[in-house]
């Protein structure tokens, strides 16, 4: 998914700049996606044998999982963070274009470059969280909460100074 975002923002911005029409970028990525989905439709469907006992156990496990307060709160926080991530992906390019008079291609390339670290972040974050867990009993959730808040504050600062701060601050 991250690679798709990277390519979509970079190549999509170039397509919009060359054609002057944002719909062409949607067609360029949408039509191949539809063709691939039709191809996958005809793939063989492996049948998984599920007993009623297994299904009942899964639902019982889920019920037990949602009894854990920290799990419920983490799930809610993850949902809000996802809203933030989608909002940033959706509006950051427009913000850069308006605040810095960038072309769609340049803004898309910058956003695409900003996604590259996201390829390494889950692996590095997991390794750091594991180290923190060894030092403190609540190391993983503490790490996630701390850096989640730092990133939200970072986004708030980034968007509030848009147009007045130099563009290199976003990289």
What does this protein look like?
The chain has six helices and no strands. The mean pLDDT is 78. The protein has helices at residues 2-19, 22-41, 52-65, 69-100, 104-135, 139-160. The longest helix is centred in the middle third of the chain and has 32 residues, at 69-100. The protein has 171 residues and is mostly helical. Helix 5 runs antiparallel to helix 6 (139-160).
Order of helices and strands: HHHHHH
- Per DSSP E runs of 2 or more residues, the count of β-strands stands at 0
Query: Which sheet architecture does the biggest sheet show?
Result: none
How many DSSP H or I helices? 6
Give the percentage of residues in beta strands: under 5%
Share in helix:
over 70%
Q: Which spans of ≥5 residues are poorly predicted at pLDDT below 50?
A: none
Distance between the termini: 21 Å
Average of the residue pLDDT scores: 78
Shape category: flat
